[in-house]
Design a protein that fits this description.
448 residues; mainly alpha; 5 strands; globular
Amino acid sequence: MLAMAVAACTPAPSADIAQRRAVAAVPLPPMRAFDAPRSRPSVRTNTQLAGDFLDLTFRLESGREIDRLTRFSGEITVGLRGPADATLKRDLARLLTRLQREAGLPIRAARPNETPSIIVEVLPRQKLQRAVPQAACFVVPRVSGWDEFRRQRRTGAVDWTTLERRERASVFLPGDVSPQEARDCLHEEIAQALGPLNDLYRLPDSVFNDDNFHTVLTGFDMLMLRVTYDPALSNGMSKQQVAAALPGILARLNPAGQRSGPPPSPPTPRIWIDAIEDALSPRGTPAQRRAAARRAVDLADSAGWRDTRMAFALYALGRLSLNREPELALSSFLDAAAIYRSLPDTQIQAAHVAMQLAAFSLSAGQSGATIGLIDESLPAVRQAENAALLSTLMMMRAEALDLQGKTSAARAERNEALGWARYGFGADDVVRARATEIAALAPGPSDR
């Protein structure tokens, strides 16, 4: 997303920019890491949460129905295979601790020579995408590793709808990506190995949403997993049986949700999903993708939506319009920001939009507006543990501080941002390229 903002907002090169590029060649600071997680409980009512659980649990992303609840029984073990670095191992251990504490799951790392319930296998991205071209990572039932998956991939063995219970699953993720991307795969794919298999665009506070705003498990996600493994549920229960049990389960697990509230969001029609997926797909031409985003906005408007789906369609239209229609991009981002800021659980979405708006204000030399947008966004970004977005915003803030003549503060901000960028973006050359792109957003002395 940043590359699009840079393309739309980069001023002409200047001596000031050349000097910053030279600075980018110095050794980078150590990689930073997030400390204790700070997930927040969902703000939705238990009636809404019950509907969410049923939609997540009894349907696949493709729309196929799932006849019965399935989950693991007893202790769940997780094993790691392949060239996993120390950061990935730390992130997996951290995730298992969160699943124990927040979801109450009997889950732990597998011991040596123990057959894991869930295998996490690290592979080269090219090898993974030869098998599943559009997937950054994925999870498969009933197989114990890549070789077995390759043998079984065209059989019913890997069909989630045929399960009676969950006994084995394998998560496949790329090892040659940034630490954050590998961690994000861990969170979403292990969560789906354990519980919900669907993604819903209407969910504002979940990794079970193809908008990809949330990248680590949220309080909502942990509650969904806790419900999945509640003693009142069991393998083989039908949707109707689970629906009958949910009010009592949620009243016990989430007493704060026992209140009245707005009705559940209406289902998302396939025509809107197709439009937004066409807009996001790299297979279309830029013109086709912009047209699809416009179609998604029009469909959301016709449906009367003022929720995350309308805001996300506007956000997609803004991103796709940056190069050709910057005024449309700006108005789309402003409209998306207004919706996200009006909702109680979309702070990270608002922060993503704020990054785009900050690129506009920084390129215009509006240092105060840039810093204001970023300062408002940073708490949500830290809570969501999005190092890539955090480093981007901090680099922009450093440029804005430079515009104000606060060079020492800018230097300290930039140094911390580069530490986060090493986690968020990975390779040193990618980090330096990102810093250079952001430096180019700010006007040089002759442009002010």
